[in-house]
Amino acid sequence: MKRTYAGLTDHPRRERIGHGNPSDWTIVKEFHAKAQARLWLQRMKEAGCETDKEVPDWGWGFTYTLPRVGQKREGRSG
């Protein structure tokens, strides 16, 4: 079963690199209000996505597939 990560960021490029440059990284939505972003993240969590508990950023919502345990992530760093 695929596991999906959902997160929020104000710096998509930096965040993508920080997550290991996943090949299926997708910006899902741009937000104009923090409350909208937090609601989206909560809904993604309720739908089964893994998320971080405390995220100060909120400008863009993103997702990517987490690698299976012991599997290297596709893509390159840098």
Task: Describe this structure as you would to a colleague.
- With 78 residues, this protein is an alpha+beta fold.
- It has one domain (3-66).
- It is built from 2 helices and 3 strands, in the order E-H-E-H-E.
- It has helices at 12-18, 34-46; strands at 3-9, 26-30, 60-66.
- A 3-stranded antiparallel beta sheet has the order 1-3-2, with helices on one face.
- It is globular.
The number of domains = 1
Beta percentage is: 15-25%
Largest sheet: 3 strands, antiparallel
What's the gyration radius in Å? 12 Å
Find the count of extended strands (DSSP E, 2+ residues).
3
Question: What spatial order of strands do you see in the largest sheet?
Answer: 1-3-2
Order of helices and strands: EHEHE
Give the overall shape, derived from the CA principal axes: globular
Region (Disordered): 1-21
Q: How do the strands and helices of this protein lay out in sequence?
A:
Blueprint: E1 3-9, H1 12-18, E2 26-30, H2 34-46, E3 60-66
Antiparallel strand pairs: 1-3, 2-3
Concise structural overview:
With 78 residues, the protein is an alpha+beta fold. It has two helices and three strands, in the order βαβαβ. The mean pLDDT is 88.
Protein traits:
3 strands; single chain; 78 residues; 26% helix; alpha+beta
